[in-house]
Amino acid sequence: MRVAIIGAGFGGLCMAIRLEPAGIAYTVFEKAGGVGGTWRDNSYPGAGCDIPSHLYSYSFEKYASWTRRYPEQPEILAYLEMCADKYGVRRKIRFNTEVRAARFDGRHWQVTTDEGTERFDVVVSSVGQLNRPAYPEIPGREGFSGVSFHSARWNHDHDLRGRRVAVIGNGSSAAQFIPRIQPLVERLDVFQRTPNWVIPKPDATFGPVTRLALHLAPGLQRAYREWIYRYAEGTLYPALAKGWSANLLRKRALGHLHAQVADPGLRAKLTPGFPAGCKRVVIDSSFYPALTRPNVEVVTDPIVRIAAKGVETAEGLREADTIIFATGFRTTEFLQPIEFTGTGGRTLADQWKDGAEAYLGISVPHFPNLFLLYGPNTNLGHNSIVFMIECQVRHVMACLPYLAEMGPMEVRPEAMAAWRRQLAAAMERMVWGNGCQSWYKTAEGRVTNNWPGPTTLYRRLTGLPPLPAYRLTSSA
């Protein structure tokens, strides 16, 4: 059996690490020159995670050496580099090799890169949801005479000191880098379409004594990790499911806003008009103070166009020599631009024209032996995606013995239909179902990204024997 893994981020490395001791041949295709995925790409000032470090890591590599409660990008990337080396998977990664297409020929997958086409029995896609930057459709963007770039492709060669900077977007990335660049720039205009709910980030450093204690007492680290996980499931998830803590989350966010922003006019601009959790909640303690500085203005006037000398709103031109797009990612365009072709010549793009979907977020009818990590409806708004990835990898590993013995298999359409109904019913309970547009949804309002249940349920479902939900392709 030969397995092709696409992507060398958290998902791809986890899959490779699990295949390595099983003696199953695999190749990891990585379009960039290093491991890390989104944690390699997003190197903007202040880039970090809003999940505590001891939970935002593999369960089999708990790692006692985190220096902060909430890790920043360099430390997360270093952790992934360490895992690639420790578990011996780096030698099987083909860097700077982008997968262009994959076609199922009835028995195998023909995987095409710029180097040619190779045959594999199984394809595991771990390209994730946050890898293709989204740029706003604003007229005149190409005519800007200054320097512009997306936050996910930060231009480290461009010195921001003394610049007049326009930031378009105000989500988690903007909340992290704005406090870092605000002291450097002459002027900073933050263009906000809708405000976000923001709660404080109780960050802390782990000194040498704490790190040593966690290293010498693995049980202490396990207990701390378990406490973080249980808190997220028991307190944060109910807030998103319109449960007992929903009002608590809203009050905490409003209290944070009032404590950090004294100006009532600015507070009004920063107060959302939708329920907390409807869009991704920003976790940050330095964002609001940065917005109150004399050289910063939050602009809520609609943008008309981007001119050569700046950003033009309905109120006139705001001059800028630098524009930073903090406008997120093309999250609902799963697996693009790779062209996947399954049985009967079906393309994944056609099958997903109304929105991406997969059984358990992992398997797609008519695409045998194709498995997705961090696929549709597996993103979380309250807990660690690494937990979800490990559940998915365990499910794939449970499928492989059947594939080796019986040949290609795919998820049954009736299993997919039942899964679709369960998701729809669960979505009705979630706060993001109605009331706001977010990166969780397609333009038509269908939620294709988020998991609408507790992670304990997802772990149970992905741990069930796979065969009843799958069939041999010969019985299709």
TrEMBL record:
Gene3D superfamilies: FAD/NAD(P)-binding domain (3.50.50.60)
SUPFAM superfamilies hit by this protein: FAD/NAD(P)-binding domain
Superkingdom of origin organism: Bacteria
Pfam families registered for this protein in UniProt: Pyr_redox_3
InterPro entries associated with the record: FAD-bind_Monooxygenase_sf, FAD/NAD-bd_sf
Protein name as catalogued: Cation diffusion facilitator CzcD-associated flavoprotein CzcO
Native species: Nonomuraea africana
